[in-house]
Amino acid sequence: AAKGAGRNRYSYFTPTLQVAALNRMRLTSDLRGALKSQQFALYFQPIVHLGSGAIHKAEALIRWNHPQRGLVSPLEFIPLAEASGLIVDIGEWVFHESARWVQRWRQQVHSEFQVSLNQSPLEFQREGSSYQGWLAHLQSLALPGQSLVVEITEGLLLDASSAVSNRLLQLRDAGIQVALDDFGTGYSSLSYLKKFDIDYLKIDRSFTRNLAPDSSDMALSEAIIVMAHKLGLKVIAEGVETPEQRDLLAAAGCDYGQGYLFAKPMPADQFDAFLRDNAMPRAASIVKAN
Ligand code: C2E
Ligand code: MG
Ligand code: MG
Ligand code: MG
Predict the structure, then answer these.
(1) 204 CA to middle of ligand 4, Å?
(2) CA of 186 to the centre of ligand 1 (A)
(3) EAL domain location, by residue (predicted)?
(4) Which of 57, 119, 175, 242 is the most buried (most CB within 10 A)?
(5) Which of 73, 90, 97, 118 to mutate to test the pocket of ligand 1 (most atoms within 8 A of CB)?
(6) How far is the CA of 208 from the centre of ligand 1 (A)?
(7) CB 44 within 8 A of CB 109
């Protein structure tokens, strides 16, 4: 029986691994042509001020519309883009699109509108990189650095290499703000929050998901919020899906919420229309929320 089981496992896993490897190779080669063929789209998801309901921030999230496979998740293709070096060009495209849209929303929605964009660890630490080009481009659009927020994960601060602190200093010099994404999932050492200049903490959605009065995730979220505020950081809760979660977070003093309760990420032109209807909190919706 043991022998049979062994053979089954063998014949099951080997082709699967090969298929997975082949799949990655094909996707990587498709990825090379994706920028030129305009297969990427930048989606935006609102970040809502919990006290007022106002929307003056959004996160940019990339989508790959593969001609045969349809939408491929960034969780699947960003690692391939990192391994192949394509992440550099993709990241530049995300930056340019973000700058174009934030310029419009600063003019038409709110003068301090902010767009946050994600940088993966390799992208962030890339050797010889600087934010000079970004700053020059922002200046050419008459945008201050504060128009943008760069989201990085806390794991980066752990290794605390000079590359990481240099990059954070460059961002600060450019006036671009920094958010710690997925906070609470890594080996967060809180001392890093003091050491580095961080503007926002994004509480990971694994905490938001299980929020209930008197739950341990509630206690952790409250502690994170109090600590962040004492250090001068603003807090954004990810993955807010229910009115209960929103209300518990608001009561705990959380500054902003992001999640399907408010809106899913949507294509830029759709988000543009969404902002026209929803950026300013309406009296009616505030009354309804209470
Ligand atoms: P992230 O930065 O933590 O982004 C939040 C993810 O949660 C997004 O997934 C978003 O669609 C999803 N989300 C938002 N609200 C909810 C909710 O209420 N419930 C649930 N279940 N999910 C929610 P998405 O867009 O698939 O992106 C996944 C990850 O891919 C991002 O995680 C980010 O790490 C990475 N990523 C996305 N765009 C880029 C990019 O332009 N560059 C880089 N380097 N990474 C990116
Ligand atoms: Mg993010
Ligand atoms: Mg996140
Ligand atoms: Mg995440």
Answers:
(1) 7
(2) 16
(3) 24-279
(4) 57
(5) 118
(6) 15
(7) no
